[in-house]
Specification:
By secondary structure, this protein is mostly beta strands. The chain has one helix and four strands. Helices cover 8% and strands 25% of the residues. The strands form two sheets. The chain has a two-stranded antiparallel ribbon. It has a two-stranded antiparallel sheet with strand order 3-4. The protein is extended.
Length: 64
């Protein structure tokens, strides 16, 4: 039997900035979570990550 690991995703409440923890499964199912401090309900959204920046193929550049 394959064991499944659940990954914790740190979040912050948009209203009171309290630190919250959710699981990757909850984010993928786009569930809602409630802040324990202020009671704000937060709808989780499964958004694709931003595209990675491509480095130029030429080695004729200076990285500062």
């Amino acid at each position: 039997m394959q064991r499944r690991f659940n990954i914790l995703v740190p979040l912050s409440c948009p209203h009171c900035q309290a630190e919250l923890m959710s699981t990757l499964d909850q984010v993928q199912r786009e569930e809602s979570v409630r802040c324990a401090w202020c009671g704000t309900t937060i709808q989780l959204q499964n958004e694709p990550p931003p595209p990675a920046m491509m480095m130029p193929e030429s080695q004729d550049f200076l990285v500062l």
